[in-house]
Amino acid sequence: MPNPYDTDPRYGRYGRRRNPFLTALRLAAEAICWLVAIAGLGWFAFVQANAYFYQADQNHRLDAQLRRSAREQLPLSSANASATAATTIANKEPLPITPARNYYATPGDLLGRIEIPKLKISAVIVEGVDEGTLRNAVGHIPGTALPGEPGNIALAGHRDSFFRKIGSLHDGDQILLETVRGTFSYHVNHIGIVMPSDTTVLGSTDHPVLTLVTCFPFRYIGPAPDRYIVTAR
Fold first, then answer.
1. Where are the strands (E) in 88-200, listed by range?
2. pTM score above 0.90
3. Is 148 within the bounds of a domain?
């Protein structure tokens, strides 16, 4: 014969009568937990989707810029080359060469793309390191050299996003920067951990250097106390 307490919702285990207030409180707490979990998953999905579509759009823009740059740098046609040669001979002096000029970037400018073949990482680079930028792209740290310029180019990325795998890099691993000014290849030569206040890793250099910066430890909950640094030449 079934125990009536097993089917009567007013009773808990061992035939103890449930407290209606505590029961309602428990149900409310469970509902809140479910809502928080659903909201968290929804926010995570939104952030991931937003970054995905942002990357797709910026990659499309960058590819268009690269194609346009390639067309502009095509060799002169034979007719144009002959005309140029004739002009040079007539003037009895070579045509002037335009010196390379530095360029400037404002927050939000698309600068290029970073690729790390070993880690299968490919992400666009955007000027700035504000939260909105780093949520959707790898950010160029203002004040450091720009991609395509000599000096120390410093890039920042979130440890749970584009730079989540850089802890697997080792000496000699290749890193590529693709820009309208060319594709530049670097190889990892140093890995270290520094305090956030240590800005010496961003100092200028007289030779090409690429510096990647992210928070550390990688699995730390909350604001991470250190910075993981990868330098490449």
1. 110-116, 121-127, 138-140, 152-156, 174-179, 182-194
2. no
3. yes
